[in-house]
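W.,

You were right to be curious about this one. When I first looked at the sequence I had no strong expectations either way, so I just let the prediction run and decided to look at it fresh. Below is the sequence, 212 residues in total, followed by the output.
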Amino acid sequence: MTEPTSEHLALADWRRRVAALYESLRNDRRPAPMRATSFRAAKDRLVGEHPSSPVPKDDRREFIGLAYWRHDPSLALRAHLEPDPEATPIGVPRSGEGMGIPFQRVGWVSFAVDGVACRLAVFWLNEYSGGIFIPFRDGSSGRETYGGGRYLWDSAKGADLGSHGDELVLDFNFAYHPSCVFDSIWSCPLAPQENWLAAPIRGGERLPEPRS
């Protein structure tokens, strides 16, 4: 991989490549486990090699790939977006110092995991680029996954699972950790309390080793 010498060009290239990964995923018509395997392999290469990887440069030599749960077809869902036009803007908490990141709740998605009813707020980034953002914590957070939660969507950064009419694709097999998991230099938006789920969702990225 040819590395840009400019930090800003490198970050632009990172976002371009992430968006391309998700575009390939949305267009992939192979069986779901094959789609997941291909996506994960491509993401591992990107995280292990790219100059804007969230993994610190000194650690990339030892990087052997992210830790994932086995693909689970029951975690590949769709849910109708229930609009919430009366919601007021909020400051989503972040992992680092500083004020909350400005988001607007635009609606809700409801679904079930292992028979347990779940509901997540769907946010819109109130900044220049905009974009849908769906963070969540669940029963695995703090032990099997990062305590601050994981992301399903962050379309401002290219992480877009797709939609069908008014339905959003909510495939937890592609849930992923924010950059602050790898290095504290990153200040990442975290799941607000309305997006804390009691049920454990064992799909997508996990920690290499459970935390006690």
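Here's what jumped out at me. The chain has a mean pLDDT of 92. And, maybe more interesting for your project: The helical segments are 7-27, 32-49.

Coffee later to discuss?

I.
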